[in-house]
Amino acid sequence: MVYNKGIKIMDEPLQRLTFDDILFEIRQAEKEKREANLSNKLLPEFSLSSRTINTTLNLENSTVQGAIYLNNCIINGDIKLNNSLIYTTIYINESEINNFIAKNIRIREVINFLASKIKGNIDMEKSQIKGFISFNRTEVGNDIILNEVIAKDIMTKSGNMKGDLYVRNTKVSGNIFIKNGSFDGLGSFESSFIEKDLDFSESKFKEVVNLSGLNINGQVIAKTLECKNLIAHI
Q: Which of 206, 215, 212, 217 is nearest to 232 (CA)?
């Protein structure tokens, strides 16, 4: 809302783009050597799978009316999703991305990284997810930042989806920060490698946190961590 001299004015509606519009903007951005401006837009569900994209994708403050599929793709740039709303899911499977920046994102189902390579950071600070967050078998060149993230259980057509956090068989060359996080489900870090620290300070998991087989060169910081049980056979 915008207020002008005491008069309430409705926010301007987001500009609606088609999938063809998305592809056109990406192509133009690559030619002009700038980031693709898909910010402040109303976007359809879309897939960029099996493509090579030579620019950053800026979707900040946008709404995606469905899922985003980024499977088997190479993005020679960042993905920016700060303050965006995703109606269903984000799938990133066997893909390469420079940085994934999604502070304050809202995802109405899950976000699933699988067997992917993120060259820099994954930053999802203060995000809200309905369903699970997964980084299984993914390689991260710097940090995973999940401070103040909220992951809630959700009932879907296929059943109950838990607000879990999965970091299994994952390689992180920096830190994992999960300060003041809230998860309705479990935390699984089994058989992962973390070069620096794993910081759970003041986070809450309603189910178990499992560190079995975790290889970590730094510290596990679990000050005031709340969970049903901490399994720590490191």
A: 212
Domain count for the chain, please give it: 1
- pLDDT of residue 61 exceeding 70: yes
Judge whether residue 190 has pLDDT over 80.
yes
pLDDT at 12: 72
Going from the C-alpha of 51 to that of each of 9, 97, 233, the distances in angstroms are 41, 12, 41
Alpha carbon distances (Å) from 14 to 38, 73, 202: 11, 28, 37
User: Could you list the residue range(s) of the whole structural domain that residue 142 is in?
Assistant: 28-231
- Cα torsion 61, 78, 23, 37: sign: positive
Give the H or E element holding residue 35: none
- Residue 3 falls within a domain, yes or no? no
* CB hemisphere CA count around 192 (13 angstroms): 30
pLDDT tens by residue, 80-128: 999 999 999 999 999 999 999 999 999 999 999 999 999 999 999 999 9
In a domain, 214, yes or no: yes
d(CA 97, CA 74): 6
pTM higher than the cut 0.90: yes
Residues 6+ apart with CB under 8 A from 89: 67, 68, 107, 109, 110, 111, 112, 131
**Is residue 15 included in any domain, yes or no?**
no
Q: How many CB atoms lie within 10 A of CB 25?
A: 19
The span from the CA of 51 to the CA of 94, in Å, is: 12
Within-domain flag for 131: yes
